[in-house]
């Protein structure tokens, strides 16, 4: 039987950032991760860090490589009818975002954790939560041995398919599935743009993003259950050139994957001594680049509440955890749904909906008030908004 203060399930961004913040507060934790280190370090996902997410990583002492290699972006381009329109984050909000891959964030956090010697177990099998309302514990199998970890508190940071969410009784689930997915690709080629391009096109949405001066990231709206194998390199480049209306440089495609799009929230995000964070509690469609940032925002709130709990026995923060987080979560849900609705082709959306999309885009690029709404949500609403 092992013992710790906080048992953390999952070594994605939520679990790893929480572990780091607790370590800085002198609070013990054990992180249990189902996959291997290599797997979690190479799982290609998000790339946009909100202003405050980047600041938090730097303040937590894991921002050195991000500062050196991350790309500061002070705006994005919205493109429709083949014409680009810049949304100037710096002028509208005085804030920016940082392009730095989730893979790199995860690598930096794992390196820091291993260096500090704090426990992080990879390839933990059969992870199960027990007695979350009373004396919580987590059972698991590591190196062929059955183990039990007793904890004061459990943080369920195990993503959408994890075991923590089902351990919360009486959940209310809010969900919307979209009738399309995103084909994401990573290509070894210099970006053909300095800033991200979000493009609306009659053939569907396209996004030009990047990871470094020699690595580009692209997304194409596709069928929800599309087989990446049906997308040859030639088809991908043709489609990107058409939808982005750009003279695009091409290069070897090194990764290809399809993500179905959904909005999903559970309420509450806590029960007894179990607290859910990140994708375990909510999913946004990726058009607003919010998923990773919400995960970090949740654990920022949780770490502060746990600091009070362990330092003084004050549980006000823990009691308010779910309500505090959900205020930001629902704002991000709305923003992500709104960006998705404005930029994608909906199968039944010909005619009236297309006219509305066009009008909304014209308003966003033509009105400073509307552009500011997009900009302040994209760079991230500060802690004054929620926790
Ligand atoms: P995760 O990153 O999912 O981490 C959860 C961890 O828990 C994983 O390491 C998992 O292996 C582990 N785990 C699961 N079950 C167990 C268990 N039983 N026991 C122990 N460990 C367990 N967001 C964007 O903003 N832009 C994007 O382009 C984008 N693309 C995405 C593509 C995909 C395919 C997916 C799934 C997500 C994408 N996201 C994107 C969302 C973003 O990556 C997530 O919001 C972010 O990873 C959330 O972090 P997390 O730590 O909450 O969850
Ligand atoms: C990236 C992903 C997003 O979902 C987004 O909105 C912008 C950029 C990316 O992976 O670079």
Your description of this structure?
There is one protein chain. By secondary structure, this protein is of the alpha+beta class. It is 36% helix and 30% strand. It contains eleven helices and 19 strands. Strands 1, 2, 8, 9, 10, 11, 17 and 18 form an eight-stranded mixed β-sheet that branches. The longest helix is centred in the C-terminal third of the chain and has 28 residues, at 316-343. The chain starts with a strand and ends in an 8-residue tail after the last helix. The mean pLDDT is 97. 3,4-dihydroxybenzoic acid binds at residues 46-48, 196, 207, 209, 217, 286-287, 289. 3,4-dihydroxybenzoic acid binds next to strand 14.
Reconstruct the topology from this structure:
Elements: E1 2-9, H1 13-24, E2 29-32, H2 37-41, E3 48-49, H3 51-59, H4 64-69, E4 71-73, E5 75-80, E6 83-88, H5 89-93, E7 97-99, H6 102-116, E8 120-121, E9 125-130, E10 137-142, E11 145-156, E12 172-187, E13 197-200, E14 206-212, E15 215-222, H7 233-244, E16 253-267, E17 270-271, E18 274-276, E19 282-283, H8 291-312, H9 316-343, H10 352-366, H11 368-379
Parallel strand pairs: 1-2, 1-11, 2-8, 5-13, 11-18
Antiparallel strand pairs: 3-7, 4-7, 5-6, 9-10, 10-11, 12-15, 12-16, 13-14, 14-15, 16-19, 17-18
Helix pairs in contact: 1-6, 1-8, 8-9, 10-11
